[in-house]
Amino acid sequence: AAMADVVDTLIDSTVTPPILADKAMAWGDRSYSSGTNWSFFKHIADEYRFGNYLKSSSVSDLKHCLDTGGYVVASMGPGRFTKGGHYVCVWKYDSENVYVNDPASAKAERKYAPISEFMKERKAFFCFWK
Q1: Using an 8 Å Cβ cutoff, are 50 and 11 in contact?
Q2: What is d(CA 63, CA 60) in angstroms, rounded to the nearest whole number?
């Protein structure tokens, strides 16, 4: 669902989470027991012909992506957003917080996180630009 936010916003407004889930299954990037593999994001970058794609865990790469018109799917570990593993779509940051669309919750406290907390909980960033 977080990746669908990115594709919908930057490339194709007809894309939905079920469409991308079907692609993940067809590519072998999804399993019923362990979620979505990180290889999925490179496949999506290629499939939808994103101009730029970067896998990183650096806050400077996250900020650069957002500052230059991109969006980031963040793989998160245990903490504010999940007890295990979860993906969120990052769309903005400021001097204190990172702001996300969390497909699993509409709770206000899951729409942002302090930068230091976010960086402690992140596993990887998948950055996409047109």
Answers
A1: yes
A2: 5
Q: Tell me the CA distances in angstroms from 7 to 22, 58, 78, 95, one per residue in order.
A: 15, 22, 26, 27
Per-block mean pLDDT, blocks of 10 residues, the chain (130 long) = 96 96 93 86 97 96 98 96 93 97 87 96 97
pLDDT of amino acid 31: 74
pLDDT for 32 equals 72
Q: How would DSSP label each residue in 106-121?
A: --GGGSEEEHHHHHHH
Write the DSSP assignment of 48-103 as a string of letters: TT-SEEEEE--HHHHHHHHHTT-EEEEEE-SSSS-SS-EEEEEEEE-SSEEEEE-T
pLDDT of residue 45: 98
In 3-state terms, what secondary structure has residue 8? helix
The token pair at 3 is 């990746």
Starting from the edge strand earliest in sequence, which strands make up the sheet with 86-93, in order? 52-56, 122-129, 71-76, 86-93, 97-101, 112-114
Give the C-alpha separation, 30 to 23, whole Å. 9
